[in-house]
Amino acid sequence: MRTVISIPDLRAAVRALKTHGKRIAFVPTMGNLHAGHLALVERARQAADAVVASIFVNPLQFGAGEDFERYPRTEARDAALLAEAGADLLFLPAIDTLYPHGKDDCTRVEVPALGDILCGAARPGHFVGVTTIVAKLFNLVQPDVAVFGEKDFQQLTLLRRMVLDLDMPIEIIGHPTRREDDGLAMSSRNGYLDADERARAPMIHAMLKSLAGQIHAGRDDFGALEEEGRAVLDAAGFRTDYVAIRRVEDLAPPQSKQDELVILAAAWLGRTRLIDNQRV
Ligand code: PAF
Fold first, then answer.
1. What is the pLDDT of residues 108-117, one digit of tens each?
2. In a mutational test of the pocket of ligand 1, which residue from 52, 58, 106, 128 has the highest number of ligand atoms less than 8 Å from its CB?
3. Helix or strand (DSSP H, E) at 2
4. What is the pTM of this model?
5. Alpha carbon separation from 33 to 29, 71, 193 (Å, rounded)
6. In what helix (H) or strand (E) does residue 64 lie, and over which residues does it extend?
7. In the prediction, which pLDDT does 151 show?
């Protein structure tokens, strides 16, 4: 696997990979990789002839007081894992490379409405940061497909909408969440949890599964179910941002019995914000 840090080197390396009509799959990450990321690379390998990955802790998607500074940077280990997983090219840019005029003055890409609800309401500006950096990376790598984890379900929904709205010829693949044995969704932020918090963290997944089971069994009093989910988390010592039952398609509240549903939750344990979701 080759690693490049500059835009000209990235463009040249991608051009070389694309010779003979080869298809490129792209896996953008913020590093501190775990088995969930490596599963995305594996999925990308199945979808194309060559895999490009990126590692960039994007300052634009972190709000004031969030964990940008302490977000774990483990590039050497990550590069070794990506090479082992079969990535062909790693883009590892510096902040100035992607935000040459500073992040505050850069042109932004916004998916309105979808970006302001759920995690967008709790983290104003977060999704503008995500869609802006992903649009930039898409322009640089020009992949045929890009693979994202379903754990960040709202992010995935926004990115699907962004490529549609901006006519980007890129297929977006969502890959199922990888979980620890006790059900906790794998996340780079799990490393922030202390032993007691780590023991309680799987409660989010258990609660989501229980709500999904009740909907499956016929309950459709969604407001009450959301309140019950929130009460379970609160009782276990979480500070809950939301438990929400939404349509898969556009994350709007359910309108009819035919809607395909997803239950999403975000909650804090101490200083760590965890998110997870469960399709019904
Ligand atoms: O999901 C992530 O790790 C990030 O939000 C992404 C898509 C790499 C953009 O910085």
1. 999 999 999 9
2. 58
3. strand 2-4
4. 0.96
5. 8, 12, 17
6. none
7. 97
pLDDT tens for 64-73 read 999 999 999 9
Quick check: CB of 13 below 6 Å from ligand 1?
A: no
How much is the average pLDDT of 166-176?
A: 98
134 C-beta closer than 6 A to ligand 1:
yes
Beta strands in 19-110 (DSSP E): 24-29, 50-55, 89-91
Decide if 37 is catalytic: yes
CB of 31 shorter than 6 A to ligand 1: no
Catalytic residue among 34, 37, 126, 175: 37
40 CB near ligand 1 (under 6 Å): no
The pair phi, psi for residue 249, each rounded to 5°, is: -60, -45
Are the beta carbons of 141 and 14 closer than 8 angstroms?
A: yes
CA proximity to 105, closest of 168, 67, 70, 59: 59
